[in-house]
Amino acid sequence: DADVTQTPRNRITKTGKRIMLECSQTKGHDRMYWYRQDPGLGLQLIYYSFDVKDINKGEISDGYSVSRQAQAKFSLSLESAIPNQTALYFCATSDYGTGELFFGEGSRLTVL
Amino acid sequence: GDSVTQMEGPVTLSEEAFLTINCTYTATGYPSLFWYVQYPGEGLQLLLKATKADDKGSNKGFEATYRKETTSFHLEKGSVQVSDSAVYFCALSRNQAGTALIFGKGTTLSVSS
């Protein structure tokens, strides 16, 4: 099994719907992240959390919210999805101090 | 603010050709530098890293040297293979508590046989 698991892997939804992307990890890391990938734009940080009680906004947090339910679980929500949120979303984890990120396989979201 | 700039792709090479992907950065202090690779349909995975000036990171035949004087961390490989076709991302970490990695926009490499 993967160390960082994202669900769902693919989702098609309609404008205005609420969507939740879930991430769980078995690496025992305190730090978790949500990134968005768009062609030609690389990875942009949405939110990150350095422990269960810590939530921080990234570069592009507008329109998104997160919940850190436990050390191993970090979910991303789109309260009212819009078409320009169509993208590939990645969850990642890291240990303190190393800087190395461990990524899930991605969740492809399409908003019609 | 801190940033990473990579050469734009796509880069198209024949098998056994020499590869260079340029990466420069802007950062205060002494960041750590990384190259990540994303194979088709997969998440990113760490390829190599360097944590201080003049360090050379290497893995799978790829190398990159942390050059503080030119603020660069160029990725090189002497002889690419078809299996190296992927998207390559340069990234930096500011090594400060409470910060996350900053990524470049990625460079697509396509290697043909």
- Inertia-based shape of chain A: globular
Low-confidence stretches of chain B: none
Rg result of chain B: 14 Å
Distance between the termini of chain A: 32 Å
Q: How many runs of DSSP E, i.e. beta strands of chain B? A: 12
What integer value in Å does the Rg of chain A equal? 13 Å
Number of strands of chain A: 11
- The class by helix and strand makeup of chain B works out as mainly beta
End-to-end Cα distance of chain B: 41 Å
Average pLDDT level of chain B: 92
**DSSP helix fraction of chain A:** under 10%
Biggest sheet details of chain B: 6 strands, mixed
**Helix count, DSSP H or I runs of 4 or more residues of chain A:** 0
Query: In percent, how helical is the residue content of chain B?
Result: under 10%
How much of the sequence of chain A is in beta strands?
over 45%
Provide a quick synopsis of the model.
The complex is a heterodimer of chains A (112) and B (113). Chain A has 112 residues and is mainly β.
What does this structure look like?
- The complex is a heterodimer of chains A (about 110) and B (about 110).
- Chain A has about 110 residues and is mostly beta strands.
- Chain A has strands at about 5, 10-15, 20-25, 30-40, 40-50, 55, 65-70, 75-80, 85-95, 100-105, 105-110.
- Chain A contains no helices and eleven strands.
- In chain A, strands 2, 4, 5, 6, 9, 10 and 11 form a seven-stranded mixed β-sheet that branches.
- Chain A is globular and about 40 Å long.
- In chain B, the strands form three sheets. In chain B, strands 2, 5, 6, 10, 11 and 12 form a six-stranded mixed β-sheet that branches.
- Chain B has about 110 residues and is mostly beta strands.
- The termini of chain B are far apart.
- Helices cover about 0% and strands about 50% of the residues of chain B.
- The interface between A and B is medium-sized, with 21 and 22 residues.
Task: Pick out its properties.
heterodimer, A: 112 residues, four-stranded antiparallel beta sheet, 11 strands, B: mainly beta, six-stranded mixed beta sheet, globular
